[in-house]
Amino acid sequence: MKIGEHNKLKSYHWIIPILTIPIFLLFSANYFWIFFATMSNRSGLWGSMYSYYDLTKTQYGFYNLILTLILCGLALSQLTFLIKKNAYRLNKTFLIMGILIGLIILSEIYMKTRFVGKG
């Protein structure tokens, strides 16, 4: 391997972060709004959704806050490694991103099994 060869990015190193960073920021804003609405006792769906999942307000609020922080951190790390042109670290973030998306899907499926209708 030649010196400086590890800094060359392939096309998927550019395409994946350009697509996922706005999506992560959108989901991060959504999860933060759920956290804010839950903790501030706002009326409406997002403010009382914790009761539908049979969780306490604190449990549901911090679940959403942790997801917000992880998504923001992942978007920031992808942007940083894209600017630094570090392909190895970008590949690691792609792997972490795949594991995180899988865990979010599994946790949301689990939360749906706990859903208690209040109607």
UniProtKB/TrEMBL annotation:
The keyword Transmembrane applies. The chain crosses the membrane at residues 12-40, 60-82, 94-111. Keywords: Membrane, Transmembrane, Transmembrane helix. This is Uncharacterized protein. It comes from Zhouia spongiae.
